[in-house]
Design brief:
Radius of gyration: 24 Å
Strand content: under 5%
Number of helices: 2
C-alpha cells in the first residue's frame, strides 16, 4: 500500500502531465488555424490571379 505522500505526488504528476498536454494541444490548434488561414488566403489569391488571366473556368473544376 502506498503512503499519502506517494499518492499526493502521483496526483501532482498526473495534473502536471495534463496541463502539459493541454498546452501542447492549444499550440497545435493555433498552428493549425494559422496554416489553414494562410492556405485559404493563398487559394483566394490564386483564384483572383486566374480570374485576371482568364483561367478561372478551367481551374474551378479542379479546385472546387
Amino acid at each position: 500500500m502506498r503512503t499519502m505522500l506517494e499518492v499526493c505526488q502521483e496526483i501532482q504528476k498526473v495534473w502536471k502531465d495534463e496541463q502539459n498536454r493541454l498546452k501542447a494541444q492549444e499550440q497545435a490548434e493555433k498552428e493549425y488555424s494559422t496554416v489553414m488561414t494562410k492556405l485559404h488566403e493563398e487559394k483566394e489569391c490564386i483564384k483572383e490571379n486566374e480570374r485576371c488571366n482568364g483561367v478561372a473556368a478551367t481551374s474551378r473544376n479542379l479546385v472546387g
